[in-house]
Sequence to fold (152 residues):
Amino acid sequence: MKLFPTLFAFLSICSPVLANEIILPNRDLSPREVIEIQLTALQTNNAKKPNAGIQQTWAFAHPNNQAVTGPIERFAKMLKNKNYRYLLGHKEYKIREVVVAPKIANFYIVIVTPDNIKLSFNWRLQKVEAGDFIGSWMTTSVSPPIRAADAI
Fold:
């Protein structure tokens, strides 16, 4: 069966998921799953290669969000600044659904930093209405962190 190795080689070159190990937005993912993908990626940001988690998170930034926070280099700097650096390498997270409507979803996120500081974020997603990822949930905004008490 020579077809299988040829097909695998083709997919490895052409498929961003296989080639770069980046999960791309698709309509089968729920808003919660999108946040889980992003938080897990940020938790293990440098595990596979430098800033791989930031790149994964960027893949799920809504086009409107990318227009404001991009390009990727600027987005990476933003994630490493004083407000969002705590997301990189955090120990654990908890996701609480606030509201999920047909086109908009809001979640309350609590993370625990390596120093055992608990921080909360408001995470907002929206369904993409045009382009390559139409119908997919993508992140439109993440609030600056707020010190959380005993949320986890």
About this structure: The beta strands are 92-100, 104-112, 118-127, 137-142, 146-147. Helices lie at 3-14, 16-20, 31-43, 52-59, 63-69, 72-79. The CA atoms of residues 37 and 57 lie 8 Å apart. The domain at 19-147 is CATH 3.10.450.50 (Nuclear Transport Factor 2; Chain: A,).
